[in-house]
Amino acid sequence: LSQPAPERLAVSEGLFARARQVTPGGVNSPVRAFGSVGGHPHFIASADGAYLTNADGARLLDYIGSWGPMILGHNHPAVREAITGALQGGTSFGAPNEREVLLAEKVVELTRELGVERVRFVNSGTEATMSALRLARGVTGRSHIVKFRGNYHGHADGLLVEAGSGLLTTAHHLGEAAPSSAGVPQEYAALTLVSEYNDPAALDALMQERGHEIAAVIFEPVVGNSGVLIPTPDFLAALHRVREHGTLLIADEVMTGFRLSLQGASGLLGIQPDLLTWGKIIGGGLPVGAYGGRAELMEHVSPSGPVYQAGTLSGNPLAMAAGLATLSELQARPELYTQLDRYAAALADGLKSAAQEAGVPVSVNQIGSMLTAFHQDAPHGSVQTYQQAARSDASAFAAWFRSMLRQGVYWAPSQFESIFVSAAHGDTELNLTLDAARRAYAELG
Ligand code: PMP
Predict the structure, then answer these.
(1) Could you please report the per-residue DSSP string of 140-162?
(2) Which of 40, 191, 255, 328 has the most CB atoms at less than 10 Å from its CB?
(3) Which regions span the lipid bilayer (predicted)?
């Protein structure tokens, strides 16, 4: 790895200065601006396998994977060829095309055991969760929804309430029991009830009191957006009980879908949701989201039913081709999941011992190819709630992050995010990462 010393970031810094003149904060999605870790974002010129090349020509070992989609690694030949092939036939039709059918058939084939019989494609995870909630409200005739503190489901108004991800790290977090963003009316936010992740008693109590008003409970089946949090069996049981109130259970698999297994976190953990939402991997690096479930529910969506939802670019042929190539590759090589898990487990072990040697308190959560190392003094695997995650020392993390980046390892630029391992991460990358991590912890210790 080349070492991207600050003076070697001249091109990125120049681009960032120009970007700030024409785009709010210089970025098109907040966490990219490095607000919580300091320093300037690297502009990326290209990406291949496990590596990014920044605009200054330095190579960076990538643990963001575009925040999840790039499970096969960047610029994967099968995905590139699928997109190139589709490109020859035009980029958008505004009429049905075969690739939409092929990708929908693939998703149904892979997730039928979860009850998925119909799937509708949209263009982002945000659209997927927004649409699934509209469907749940349309089917049940109820107005309220429940989400969990620190879970993130995209930036639709009703979901920007006690939300995770960038909301946990931007300077404008507005505080307790309130919208997480300006511009979300309190009246609208009031329709979103907030409960605590991994607190089955709190969810049971809320459902006892208000279950009859609640259209849906939406949740991250493994949380990535408060850092990684793994659901306890008791909490999963409480989630399944919400159905006793006629409430629909929506598993937001935007991050975990096709990542934690071919059947996502739901398949891995034995969750049986009524509706699922997807994004990221399902589009293979192009803008795709989707929602799906039983026919009896999904047929309420227009034009079959009265719940309206549409999109000019939905089912875009290039995006469908990229998603289909990605899912087909994952299906053809199921051993990839074992490989990803092994890598991430070895990374977790290496980080634990490196931190311990340096005397830096760290608590690692890892499941499959998702991992967060919380800078706090707690047993590994014991961070289960948003409140516990929030106790982390974000400034120690920031210093560690900057040291890793100076050494050419591009970790997620926030304490409250997951990193994502790809199939292109191998022994070389593991050793590079752990060497860098040992130095970064030693600098902190
Ligand atoms: N749900 C979850 C669980 C997510 O992690 C994200 C994005 N990180 C979203 C929804 C929103 O997806 P998008 O950014 O594609 O709108």
Answers:
(1) H---EEEEETT----S-GGG-BS
(2) 255
(3) none
